[in-house]
Amino acid sequence: MRRVALALGVLLLALVVALGAGVALTPSRQPVVPPASEQVDVEAMTQHLAEAIRFRTVSAARAEDVNREALDGLIAWMEQTYPRTHDQLIREVVGGHSLLFTWRGADPSLPPILLMSHMDVVPVENEAEWTHPPFDGVIADGALWGRGAMDDKVGVVGILEAVEGLIAEGFTPQRTVYLSFGHDEETLGEGSLAAAALLRERGVRLSWVLDEGMVITDGIIAGLSAPAALIGVSERGYLSVRIEAADAGGHSSMPPPTTAAGRVARAVARLEAEPFPAGLDGPASALFAWLAPEMRQPLRTVFSNLWLFRPVVLSQLTQKPSTNALVRTTQAVTMLSGSLQDNVLPQSAWAVVNLRLHPRDDQASALARLAEVIDDPTITLSPYPSGLNGEPSPIAGDVGSPGFDSIAGAIRALRPDVLVAPGLTIGATDARRFIDLADDIYRFMPLQLTEPERAAIHGTDERVKLENLALFPAFYRQVIRRGAGA
Question: Which of 81, 199, 362, 432 could potentially form a cystine with 204 if both were Cys, beta carbons 3.0 to 4.6 Å apart?
Answer without folding.
Answer: 199
